Amino acid sequence: MPLAALLLVALLAPPTGDDTPWVELAGPSGLKHWKSPTDDWQDVGSVKVDPSNERRLTASPGSGVLYNGPKGRTRNLVTSQNFSDVEVHLEFMIPKGSNAGIKLQGQYEVQILDSFGKATPIATDCGGVYPKAELLPKYRYLDEGYPPKTNACKAPGEWQTMDIVFRAPRFEGKQKVSNARFEKVLLNGTVVQEDLTLLHPTGHAHRHPEMAEGPILIQADHG
C-alpha cells in the first residue's frame, strides 16, 4: 500500500506580512531534506497504480516524486529541519486501501487514508485529526478525534492535495501557555478542519512532551 508524495513547507509569515520562502522537501531536492536512513524510500519520476494489483503503486525512473517503495511498508520519513508555525502544501497519491498520515512536529497527525466514497467520515478517515490512543498492551483509541467536516477524498490512484496551516504550542520557559492549533486543513481544496485547538498530541504521542518546534513526519510503515 505505497504512498507517493510531493511536499512544500513555508514558515508562516511574520506579523509584518513579509513574504516567507517555501522550503521544497521533495522535487529536485530528492531525499536530502530527510533524516537518514530512509530505507526503501526512492526519488522517482512518476507513479501509478499497478495494473496487476490495485493495492500497489509502481514507479518510473526520474526525479521529483518521493515513493515509499514496492512493499509499501518502510521507515517513516522525518525532516532534518525542525519547524514551529508552518504552512504545508502536500500532493500525494495512494492506492486502494492505503493508510498513511502527515504529522506536524512529529506528533499532531492529519490522516491520509483511502476513504473514497465513504458517506460519513470519522477521525481516522482522510483529512481527520487522529484520535488520542494507547499503544500497549493493545492499540486502542481513547477518544473520537476530529472527523473531517466532509469527505473530500478522491479515488485511489488520483493525485490529491492537502494544505495545512499549523500553529505550534507556545511556552514561557517550560510552561505551556498556548495549545497547538490547526488553523485550517484543506483536502483537495475543501476545508475539512478549521480553528481546531489540540490539548495534546494525537495517537499514542499524547504521552510525549510537547515542544515549541519539531520535524515533519510522513507515515510510511503501513501504507
How would you explain this protein's 3D organization?
With 223 residues, the protein is mainly beta. 0% of the residues lie in helices and 43% in strands. The chain contains no helices and 16 strands. It has strands at 4-11, 22-24, 42-50, 53-67, 77-78, 86-93, 99-104, 108-113, 133-134, 140-141, 160-167, 170-172, 175-178, 180-187, 190-198, 217-219. The strands form 4 sheets. Strands 1, 2, 3, 4, 6, 11, 14 and 15 form an 8-stranded antiparallel beta sheet that branches. The radius of gyration is 17 Å and the shape is globular.
Spans of at least 5 consecutive residues with low confidence:
none
The computed structural class is mainly beta
Roughly how much helix do the residues carry, as a percent range?
under 10%
Shape: globular
The major sheet is characterized as:
8 strands, antiparallel
Question: What would you report as the Rg, rounded to the nearest angstrom?
Answer: 17 Å
Tags for this model:
single chain; 223 residues; eight-stranded antiparallel β-sheet; 0% helix
Topology, element by element:
Layout: E1 4-11, E2 22-24, E3 42-50, E4 53-67, E5 77-78, E6 86-93, E7 99-104, E8 108-113, E9 133-134, E10 140-141, E11 160-167, E12 170-172, E13 175-178, E14 180-187, E15 190-198, E16 217-219
Antiparallel strand pairs: 1-2, 1-4, 1-6, 3-4, 5-16, 6-11, 7-8, 7-16, 9-10, 11-14, 12-13, 14-15
Short description:
This protein is mostly beta strands. It has strands at residues 4-11, 22-24, 42-50, 53-67, 77-78, 86-93, 99-104, 108-113, 133-134, 140-141, 160-167, 170-172, 175-178, 180-187, 190-198, 217-219. The strands form four sheets. Strands 1, 2, 3, 4, 6, 11, 14 and 15 form an eight-stranded antiparallel β-sheet that branches. A four-stranded antiparallel β-sheet has the order 5-16-7-8, with no helix packed on it. A two-stranded antiparallel sheet has the order 9-10.
